[in-house]
Design a protein that fits this description.
Elements: H1 4-56, E1 64-71, E2 80-85, E3 91-96, E4 100-105, E5 111-116, E6 124-129, E7 136-141, E8 145-156, E9 163-169, E10 177-178, E11 186-193, E12 197-204, E13 209-218, E14 225-233, E15 243-246, E16 252-256, E17 261-266, E18 274-280, E19 288-293, E20 299-304, E21 309-316, E22 322-330, E23 337-342, E24 348-353, E25 357-362, E26 367-373, E27 379-384, E28 390-395, E29 400-406, H2 414-418, E30 433-434, E31 445-446, H3 449-479, H4 483-495, H5 501-518, H6 520-543, H7 546-549, H8 557-574, H9 576-583, H10 588-595, H11 605-629, H12 633-641, H13 646-675, H14 678-683, H15 701-708, H16 717-751
Antiparallel strand pairs: 1-29, 2-3, 3-4, 4-5, 6-7, 7-8, 8-9, 8-10, 11-12, 12-13, 13-14, 15-16, 16-17, 17-18, 19-20, 20-21, 21-22, 23-24, 24-25, 25-26, 27-28, 28-29, 30-31
Helix pairs in contact: 1-16, 3-11, 3-13, 4-11, 5-11, 6-8, 6-9, 11-13, 12-13, 13-16, 15-16
Length: 754
């Protein structure tokens, strides 16, 4: 017997040691798994951040240029008046002041074709070029006529190899077009052409400014085109005309003097052109040295002798007349501007100055992308390719240089993303998001302010509804509700979180929004009548006989309020038409617009607040209720034992102790509201407006990404800015969560001694 007892003890100890060893092994494994899991979360979050940053960083690269070749053209005659390149940057063309047109290899200078525009008994006296995308040019002649033609590039693929063949086409007439009836030499020339009409403006040797309108009539039999010509002599400017510009819509004409005066005419009615204004566009003592339209022909770029370039855009005034207004300056050059070349498809431009500097700029972003000295001699011409990926510069010594350009995202700057921008056709600077348009001349508007504002607005109205309902519900459920009732209510509310947000958005957009619009007075009546009704119901219950009140067990009183709440909501909605007729003249939307100056959208912030608040309530309620319910019972019982009422205990003990958890619940709910996509996508008008009114729509960062990312071109500026919006959302939630954790730790430390 004595031998068996030690054996039994040893076996028991061995079993205990084995259990303890396995327990320690399991604890070590669990600790490692939890640690690995935590580190994995941090690593994945860091990877998300770095990937977003990787996609976004190219937006802020500066432009770079690379010189590939430099050469002088053979068999040149006359002075260069214009340079241009075709889209593939393989072939370029030079126009001289004696009518010679030379096509050559852009990268080598090898001659391809040389043609002289010859008109018998007339000499070339002027040159004009239309919008660069049209490739339309013209020579003014000494007999008062002009010859208009296009440089065109025919692309063929013999034997599977691309071949580009340059050619000259005559869209109006193969013969010279009569411009001046008196036959005076044309000293300045401007022209524009479209499918229906062409407009040519010129100054003559006797200082007249004339406008010729050519209306095209196409034959149904052989597609031949006849021109119906009309001529008008415009009012003589008060200054000699050194430049003439006609916009591509053939609605505005500008006669410009070297001293900086611009006289503008409205030529929408070609029979009766109208003088609009005369303004000065350069400082005193300076003169205009180069002037061109910006892409779209809404703005004019004015380069002057001080090296500055100013942007003047048509701005509609209170009298409904559009006038040139100075909206932007670029002062990075120090030498007189010799040439300006606007980009074909973007609101950017290139400059060349008399000291050999090249500049690359973007107007909307108000960004200087490059200013670099490229030549020791003065530059007098510059040409940019249609894709803005190459350029030609022409030195004063006749040397031509071919450059490659790397400038993928000039539209982006801090001011264009976060500041007010004066866009073309706008009366003042504004925050605008409008990433696409049907027009090729569209000015992209990439301000993140409206959609960031919309994100905060949606979160604000959602939290305005969710926080009171969720927190008060959590407090009552945890402290006052009967345990049996709590076991039913809490899971029911928590399961609401499993509802797909796309369903909530669908219901909000198709049912809730029209319902709220139809019963808007009733909705506001609920906000006023419901709290008063609940207080009256509670007061009435307190007046009931004690025998009646004791029939309802403690913690079940809230069930009695359900019929009251349903009845008040029903009454408010039923009385909505009567309230609308009595208080708002039968149409509250019209009353808001006319009396209050507030617009009304059916899908507005009220609808978003209700729908998104419904989605956020379960998150806040569940976490807050757990925090309140987890307050140690001895604190509550001790407070009650010392004579405090249940409400005093709630306010001074429970709330303080549970405040870290409650604060976390609110912050997590805010993060959910900020990042919500489907509800705001379907329940709002997706209008990126800067209006805090609850009756107006909005667009959020997340909804904007969901709407536009599938349609954006990969690696385009638009594509990368959408990733930037995602990065902003990521950083915002990271900042809010970090701040929330710091505050939570501070609250926990402060109230941990209770």
């Amino acid at each position: 017997m004595n031998n068996k007892a030690p054996d039994s003890a040893r076996a028991s100890n061995l079993k205990s040691d084995t259990y303890l060893r396995w327990r320690l092994i399991k604890d070590a494994i669990a600790s490692r798994v939890v640690g690995i899991g935590g580190m994995s979360v941090i690593i994945f979050i860091a990877l998300i951040f770095f990937y977003l940053a990787y996609v976004v960083l190219p937006l802020f690269k500066w432009a770079t240029i690379e010189q590939l070749t430099s050469y002088s053209l053979a068999n040149n005659s006359g002075q260069t008046v214009h340079l241009a390149m075709e889209e593939q940057t393989e072939i370029a063309v030079r126009f001289s002041d004696d009518g010679q047109v030379t096509f050559f290899r852009a990268q080598s200078g090898a001659l391809i074709q040389q043609t002289r525009i010859v008109v018998e008994s007339a000499d070339v006296t002027s040159f004009g070029a239309a919008d660069p995308s049209q490739a339309l040019v013209g020579y003014g002649l000494s007999d008062g006529t002009a010859i208009v033609f296009k440089h065109h590039y025919r692309v063929t693929f013999p034997d599977g190899k691309r071949v580009i063949t340059p050619e000259i086409r005559y869209p109006l007439s193969e013969t010279a077009i009569e411009i001046d009836d008196e036959g005076q030499p044309l000293t300045k020339l401007a022209l524009q052409d479209n499918e229906e009409e062409a407009t040519i403006a010129a100054t003559t040797a006797d200082h007249r400014l004339i406008l010729v309108h050519l209306l095209k009539e196409t034959s149904f039999l052989d597609d031949s085109v006849t021109l119906e010509r009309s001529l008008v002599t415009l009012p003589q400017p008060s200054h000699p005309v050194d430049y003439i510009l006609i916009d591509k819509n053939q609605s505005n004409l500008y006669a410009i003097a070297e001293n900086g005066e611009i006289t503008s005419y409205d030529i929408s009615d070609k029979e009766e052109p109208r003088f609009v204004e005369r303004i000065r566009v350069v400082p005193n003592g300076a003169s205009i040295t180069a002037i061109k339209f910006l892409t779209g022909d809404i703005s004019i770029l004015v380069g002057d002798s001080s090296g500055s370039v100013t942007q003047w855009s048509l701005v509609r005034g209170e009298d409904n007349i559009s006038r040139l207004t100075r909206i932007r300056d670029f002062n990075e050059n120090t030498a007189p501007i010799a040439a300006i070349a606007p980009e074909y498809a973007r609101k950017g431009y290139l400059t060349a100055d008399k000291n050999g500097h090249i500049g690359i700029f973007h107007t909307t972003a108000h960004r200087t992308l490059l200013v670099d000295k490229t030549s020791n001699t003065a530059l007098d011409h510059i040409a940019v390719s249609p894709r803005a990926n190459a350029m030609l510069t022409h030195g004063h010594n006749g040397e031509i240089t071919f450059w490659r350009i790397d400038n993928e995202h000039p539209e982006v700057s801090w001011s264009s993303l976060w500041g007010k921008v004066w866009y073309e056709n706008y009366s003042e600077p504004a925050y605008i998001w409008q990433s696409s348009s049907a027009s090729d001349d569209f000015e992209p508007k990439f301000s993140l302010v409206p959609i960031t504002f919309g994100t905060l607005k949606a979160a604000f109205y959602a939290m305005l509804i969710a926080i009171p309902l969720a927190l008060f519900g959590a407090l009552y459920t945890a402290q006052f509700m009967a345990p049996r009732m709590r076991r039913t209510v809490k899971p029911s509310i928590e399961i609401m979180e499993a509802l797909p947000t796309v369903i909530l958005g669908f219901l909000a957009g198709l049912w809730l929004a029209p319902y709220v619009e139809k019963h808007l007075p009733g909705v506001f009546a609920i906000l006023i009548i419901l709290p008063v009704g609940i207080l009256l119901a509670a007061y009435t219950w307190s007046l009931m006989p004690r025998s009646v009140r004791l029939r309802v067990p403690d913690g079940w009183e809230a069930a009695l309020l359900l019929p009251v709440i349903i009845f008040i909501i029903w009454v408010s909605v039923t009385l909505s038409p009567a309230l609308e007729a009595f208080l708002f003249g039968g149409d509250i939307r019209l009353w808001l617009t006319n009396e209050m100056g507030v617009g009304f959208d059916q899908r507005n912030a009220i609808v978003v607040g209700i729908a998104m608040g419904f989605a956020v309530i379960p998150t806040i309620f569940s976490i807050a209720e757990d925090a309140v319910f987890g307050v140690p019972k001895h604190l509550v019982q001790g407070s009650l034992a010392l004579g405090a009422t249940p409400w005093q205990t709630m306010i001074r003990v429970v709330l303080l102790t549970a405040s870290p958890g409650i604060f976390s619940a609110i912050m997590i709910g805010l993060g959910r509201a900020v990042g919500e996509t489907m509800i705001v996508l379907m329940a709002t008008g997706n209008t990126p407006v800067m209006d805090f009114s609850p009756f107006e729509g909005l667009r959020t960062l997340s909804a904007n990404i969901a709407v536009e990312l599938p349609e954006s071109e990969v690696d385009s500026t638009h594509f990368r800015i959408l990733f930037l919006a995602g990065l902003v959302l990521f950083l915002f939630t990271f900042f809010v969560n970090t701040l929330a954790e710091l505050v939570r730790q501070r609250l926990r430390k402060k109230y941990s001694t209770l």
